[in-house]
Amino acid sequence: MTEDLLDYWVRLIRPLFPANAWIVARYDGDDHVIEIDWKLDTDPARPNRRSRKIRITISDEAIEDYLDRDRQERDLFETRLKKLIHERFSHCDANLPAERNPSASADKLLIARETLNA
Fold first, then answer.
1. What SS3 class is residue 109?
2. CB atoms within 10 A of CB 70
3. 94 CB contacts (<8 Å, ≥6 apart)?
């Protein structure tokens, strides 16, 4: 179920990012990690330059809470997730080029149990 859920969340948030976004979903322990970046196409001298990486981590506890909900509560959880991601990343400039140190250039968001249950 969790692999299907991870794929589902990727499909859920994909429309919030540019059409050419490269999205990678993976597990980090019991957490789900979704990493997003895209080609900038803003510098003809560097046609393959990429945006800053966005890293969204959904904690194991948030996943458990989601799975314990009925359909209506899951819909609300999904709406909150999309709103949070939209608000967080529509105001930052992810179109800035990536830094040489990947961990320093990642814009990170942790979705914890408390994040979406508020």
1. strand
2. 7
3. 37, 51, 52, 54, 107
Give 66-110 pLDDT, tens digit per residue: 999 999 999 999 999 999 999 988 765 555 555 555 544 578 999
Q: What is the DSSP string of 14-32?
A: GGGS-TT-EEEEEEETTEE
Single pTM value for the model: 0.82
Q: How far is CA 36 from CA 69, 75, 93, in A?
A: 27, 23, 13
Closest by CA to 112, choosing from 61, 54, 69, 76, is: 61
SS3 9: helix
Sorted by sequence, the CB contacts under 8 Å of residue 95 that are 6+ apart come out as 40, 42, 51, 52
CA dihedral 16, 86, 49, 26 (to 10 degrees): -70
Between CA 104 and CA 88 the distance in angstroms is 18
The percentage of residues in the chain with a pLDDT greater than 90, rounded to a whole number, is 59
- Between 31 and 90, the more confident residue is 31
